[in-house]
Amino acid sequence: MSQEQGNAPEPTLARLTRYLRCLRRLSDEGIQTISSKQLEARLGVLSAQIRKDLSYFGEFGKPGVGYNVQHLLERLSEVMQLDREHRAVIAGAGNLGSALAGYAGFAKSPFRIVGMFDNNFSKIGRLLWNLEIQDIHELPRINQTLGATIGILTVPANAAQEVADIMVDAGIRAILNFAPAHIHVPCHIAARDVDLLRELEILSYYLDRLPAEDEAKSDTAPEADGLDS
Amino acid sequence: MSQEQGNAPEPTLARLTRYLRCLRRLSDEGIQTISSKQLEARLGVLSAQIRKDLSYFGEFGKPGVGYNVQHLLERLSEVMQLDREHRAVIAGAGNLGSALAGYAGFAKSPFRIVGMFDNNFSKIGRLLWNLEIQDIHELPRINQTLGATIGILTVPANAAQEVADIMVDAGIRAILNFAPAHIHVPCHIAARDVDLLRELEILSYYLDRLPAEDEAKSDTAPEADGLDS
DNA sequence: GGTCGCCTGTGAAACTTTGCACAAAGATTA
DNA sequence: TAATCTTTGTGCAAAGTTTCACAGGCGACC
């Protein structure tokens, strides 16, 4: 029986993105069918886990055969809403914001950077990767035209909340926050934090706390969670 | 009774970094004592959760009083090994690598970028943020001098594994991987993935799946997990 | 058509993490 | 000193997630 609601666990969603990446590669390789056991071999995720993850969204496989790569790829893309373009704006034209704006990986993704914003008058008006840096306070007005649904926050920590509020005002419905600060958003807005310093601090904890160098490239360390090749 | 081993759950470690950030701010504000209930009000983490998290590492508070901010700050810093400097190298002098190398937030952290590496001969030798870009293949030799324990991976996905191997060769013991690819490391190496596209894909899933705009700035959306202030 | 081997989807068990509730302990007041 | 208030640390229950194990479906081969 298939469920269809949005009640899949978060860890499942994270793994789904890995399955997708693997499926895209399989598709490129011209492989048409794959079983959960074969996926386990490629991803290091238990086959039962894979089947359970998929079962949250429907029944995609054939017993005795496995999954049709193309079909599963399309279905999971639908589930993740990756079958349509998503427009995003970046707030904060500093080092990180500039780097993200120029990220080549977006080309093959459904995500498009359609606007770049800052509050620094010496930056506003300048061109960056073919985008003119605009005044962050104009975002609500300008986004009526841009129609971005995703906001990427690359401002300093002390400005994060203020800019997040502006984004919500502007009709942004999902925020990816790179500032090392927590932002409060209304419950109809999705928000995630990506925090360089936090990641380093967690790695710091593990330094000198790992099994000891008995070699054997058995990757079972406290990895966050991996991705496809 | 206090435990001291490294058997704390990962979610606890992630929250610990949030407690630390809050404690640093409290310390700056000159606040000397804080209770788990007050922390709950500031962080949105249940007080019982906070106490349980802390209990993995010892007993730091006084019943009837709370925690001494400075003392807890120092103890947690020890636990996370943030009381000493950590040297890190960056591999991949592209947009993202360059941005991270220049990240101002490192100044107040125990992390120091001590080397910048790439495989592109047109980049090797150039200066970036006062660091000379060096040949990635020289890392094992050069790191005998640098003594970096942390490696930050900002190379394209298809080079990630190869460069990770070089890092392990070079004595790096923790890897922060920004490439959209999974890397395999020996079990005595810590590794974490930070993946822009994955985060966007997860946000994409939540778009149009949230409670609907009934306003009320009640932040109880599917936030990843927040940070202080 | 029957038999065999493989693979899916899923209920139930095992494990992990969170949240609750309370005993014990320090502070405060009288 | 006793009564009261506050807050910690933790055993236990609840919730969430992963893993196991198997019934039943499908294809291949004889």
Short description:
The structure is a homodimer of 229-residue chains. By secondary structure, chain A is an alpha/beta fold.
What does this structure look like?
Two copies of one chain form a homodimer. Chain A has 229 residues and is α/β, with parallel strands linked by helices. Chain A folds into two domains: 10-79, Arc Repressor Mutant, subunit A, CATH 1.10.10; 86-194, 3-Layer(aba) Sandwich (Rossmann fold), CATH 3.40.50. Helices cover 38% and strands 17% of the residues of chain A. Chain A contains eight helices and ten strands. Chain A has helices at residues 10-28, 36-43, 47-55, 69-79, 95-101, 139-146, 157-169, 196-206, and strands at residues 33-34, 61-62, 66-68, 86-91, 111-118, 127-128, 131-135, 150-153, 174-177, 190-193. In chain A, helix 2 (36-43) crosses helix 3. Chains A and B meet through helix 1, helix 5, strand 9, strand 10 and helix 8 of A and helix 1, helix 5, strand 9, strand 10 and helix 8 of B. Chain A binds a DNA duplex (30 and 30 nucleotides) through residues 1, 9, 11-12, 35-37, 46-49, 51-52, 54-55, 59-67.
Count of structural domains of chain A: 2
Task: Give me the Rg of chain A, rounded.
Answer: 20 Å
Estimate the global geometry of chain A from the Cα principal axes: globular
The low-confidence runs of chain A, each spanning 5 or more residues with pLDDT under 50, are 215-229
- Name the CATH class of the largest domain in chain A: Alpha Beta
Secondary-structure content class of chain A = alpha/beta
Helix proportion of chain A? 25-40%
Major sheet characteristics of chain A? 7 strands, mixed
- Average pLDDT confidence of chain A is 90
Secondary-structure arrangement, i.e. CATH architecture of the largest domain in chain A: 3-Layer(aba) Sandwich
Quote the distance from N terminus to C terminus of chain A: 32 Å
Count of DSSP H/I helices of chain A: 8
**Which oligomeric form is depicted?**
homodimer
